[in-house]
Please model this.
Amino acid sequence: MDANEINFENLPKAVAHLANEIAEIKSIVEQNQVRAIPTKKIPIDISEACKIIGKAKPTIYTLVRERKIPCYKSGKKLYFFEDELLEWISKGKKKTIQEIEAEARANYKSLK
Model:
């Protein structure tokens, strides 16, 4: 429908046309929009952290005191988030001999 065609007599037709256009735009936007559901981070206590990490409570307390493990403190209680603990564990990966050799070769080639 053209803007020149809009007058008082065909106003209902123009409104219907605009409503259809808006509905089409809305459906296109809804199809392209990914609705991300925010994940809730639920804190866990030290006993659950011990199970995840596989360490005893005194070891966890030592890691907290040395600030080597991600934790939160509210009053006298310690809290952890499971995803942060798993990330902390994955950061401590030791390289394999093949990875060390590949890294050494890459460094040697860059020096030439």
Notes: DSSP finds five helices and three strands in the chain. The longest strand covers residues 77-81. The CA atoms of residues 8 and 84 lie 64 Å apart. The beta strands are 43-44, 72-74, 77-81.
